Amino acid sequence: MTARPSWVDDPHPSIDEQRLGTRGLRRGLALLGRLLPGEWLRTVLWRGLVAKPRKVLRRAATGFYRIDHVYEVLEEFASEVEGPLSVLEFGTAQGYATAKLLYAIRHLGLEDRVCYHGFDSFEGLPAAVDPEDRGFRGNDWIEGSYRASLAGIEAYCAAKGYRNARFHPGYFEATLGPELLAELRTTPPCLVWLDCDLYSSTRTVLERLADVLPTGCVLYFDDIDFNYGSRFTGQARLIHEINHEGLLGSDTELVLDRELSWDSARIYRFVRVGERALAYRPRFTRTVPAEARPIGDGSPFP
Ligand SMILES: C[S@@+](CC[C@H](N)C(=O)[O-])C[C@H]1O[C@@H](n2cnc3c(N)ncnc32)[C@H](O)[C@@H]1O
Prior knowledge:
Number of helices: 11
Number of strands: 9
Largest sheet: 7 strands, mixed
Number of domains: 2
Oligomer: single chain
CATH class of the largest domain: Alpha Beta
Bound molecules: S-adenosylmethionine
CATH architecture of the largest domain: 3-Layer(aba) Sandwich
C-alpha cells in the first residue's frame, strides 16, 4: 500500500469541510478507493455506485416535475380567490398536457369554477423566423412539428364528459382577439401554460394577455431551457426583455416563483403595479391587526 496522502489526515480542514461535515466521508472514500485495484475499476464503481445513485436521489428529492405545480396552483387560487377562474394552455398539440390539466381541475372539484382554454394552430409550429429562435447547436425548431388533430382532442374531452374545456384553433395572433380577452377579464386566468416552444409565439401571447392578467397569476414556461436558458434566445429572452427592457411596461415584471419551480426556473408570477394593475377578488381580507408573538426561550425551537 502507498502512504496515506497528507490531505486525508489534514489537521486543518477547510471551512467547507467543517460546514458540510464531509471530512469523515472523504477519508472513508479515500481508504475504500485504495483498497480497489486499478483506476479503471475504481472509476467504473465510482460512476455506478456513487455518482449515479447520487444523481437519482437528487432528482427524486428536488427535481422539478411539471404536473405537480398544477395542483398546488389550483388549490391556492381555489382557497384564496373568489369567483370563476380560467387555465390557459398555449400549444396543446395532441392534448398530452391538456388531459392532465383538465383532470387536475376535476380532481380538485373545480369544474364549475375553472374553465380550461386550449390554443393551437393544429398545423404544428410556425416557421421560426426570429433570430431569438435559433438553436446554438443548430437544433432549431422545425416548421410543422407537433401537427395535431382538434377532432381527436375534442373527442377525448367528450368521452370524459369535460364541459369546462374550450379550444381555439388557429394561430395565437388570430385566436387571442378582443372578444376573448374581454371575456378573460371576467374569468381571470390563474395559470397560463406556455408550451408553444418559440420566443415569437410566447411573445405574442404575453403581449396580448398582459392587460387581462391579475398580479399573482402563475406563468409556466415549458421551453425555458432552450439554449441552456440563455437570455439571448427563446422564452428566457422574453423574460429578460420584460424584466430588464420594459417590454410590457415599466410597471410590469415576472418574478421567479422558487417554491413552485423547484430546481428549475420555469414558473413565474405576473406582477403589475399602479393604475393598470388588476387584482383577484380575495376570499378573505384581514380586518384585525396581527399580534406579535410572545417571547419564548433562546433555543432554535419555535
Ligand atoms: C411542444 S408542442 C405542445 C405540446 C403539448 N403541450 C403537449 O403536452 O404535448 C407546441 C405546440 O405549439 C403550437 N404553436 C406554437 N406556436 C404557435 C402559434 N403562434 N399559434 C398557434 N399554435 C402555436 C404548435 O402547433 C405545437 O402544437
